[in-house]
Amino acid sequence: MKSITILIADDEAEIADLIELHLVKEGYRCLKAVDGQEALGMIWTQSVDLAILDIMMPKIDGYELTRIIREKFHLPIIFLSAKTTDLDKITGLVRGADDYMTKPFNPMELVARVNAQLRRFIQLNPSMAAPTADTSMLEAGGLVIYPEQRNVFLYGNPVELTPKEFDILVLLASHPKKVFSSEHIFQRVWGEAYYESGNTVMVHIRTLRKKLGEDQHKNKLIRTVWGVGYAFNG
User: Fold this and answer.
1) What sequence ranges are listed for the domain OmpR/PhoB-type (predicted)?
2) Angle (CA) 222 207 195, round 5°
3) Deepest of 33, 101, 136, 202, by most Cβ within 10 A of its Cβ?
4) Is the preceding peptide bond at 58 cis, omega within 30 degrees of 0?
5) DSSP string covering 47-114
């Protein structure tokens, strides 16, 4: 399953590290560059799905870097800048950015905007959208999952999931009726030792259920087996 790669270009290491921390928690792979020239090299040599760019960077600033990127690539670009006036924001969008956030910023809001831009990009690019038929497709009770494309549809409507929520759903849906403990889910999805991380799994399951509309339907797609774990009612 292809991981989504996000480029973070900012000469302030603390900010880049903070962004990386939150994006990695959501399951994204991150690349970091300290100036525009290094960022451009990563764009040319690696598969980047979205870029978060500071405007005032050494060597090549964010405006010029965006212009160069737009000559060949169509990936979403989010400007993250200390330039805060309305004119600055308008200029950033006119220069080719898809979104604009000002510093200081809320990391969770940035993650939400990243998710939104990636969802929009996939919807507007047919080559990345879910095909009409797929041998790896998972389907149950109006829910359709395309693991390779990382798309989910509920009764024909797209469902926006974070990378971790998607991975949990695919893990459960790929093994209908099998009960997975919180420890097993955490180790499979996060790839880390458990260390009492059951609450993390529980929170993600709760959010996943809400997005699947389980609070509005009697038939639960994800079943809680008390004292054991979770199972998919496929």
Assistant:
1) 135-234
2) 85
3) 33
4) no
5) --SEEEE-SS-SSS-HHHHHHHHHTT----EEEEES--SHHHHHHHHHTT-SEEEESS--HHHHHHHH
Q: Give the dihedral sign, CA 194/200/206/210.
A: negative
What average pLDDT does range 186-208 have in this prediction? 80
Q: Please tell me the total number of residues recorded for the chain in this structure.
A: 234
Strands (E), the chain: 5-9, 29-33, 50-53, 77-81, 99-102, 138-140, 143-146, 151-154, 157-158, 222-225, 229-232
Task: Please indicate, yes or no, whether the overall pTM of this predicted structure exceeds 0.70.
Answer: no
What is the gyration radius of the CA atoms in the chain, in angstroms?
19
Confidence of residue 45 (pLDDT cuts 50, 70, 90): confident
Residue-range domain boundaries for the chain: 5-124, 138-232
Of the candidates 73, 85, 86, the one whose C-alpha atom is nearest the C-alpha of residue 47 is 73
Query: In this structure, are strands 222-225 and 229-232 parallel, antiparallel, or unpaired?
Result: antiparallel
Q: For residue 188, give both structure tokens.
A: 């499979």
**For the chain, what is the mean pLDDT?**
85
Q: How far apart are CA 100 and CA 90, in angstroms?
A: 9
Q: Taking the CB of residue 177, how many other CB atoms lie within 10 A of it?
A: 10
Separation between Cα atoms, residue 108 and residue 159, nearest integer Å: 19
Select from 3.20.20.70, 1.10.10.10, 2.60.120.10, 1.10.3470.10 the CATH code of 138-232: 1.10.10.10
User: What average pLDDT does this structure show over 55-84?
Assistant: 92
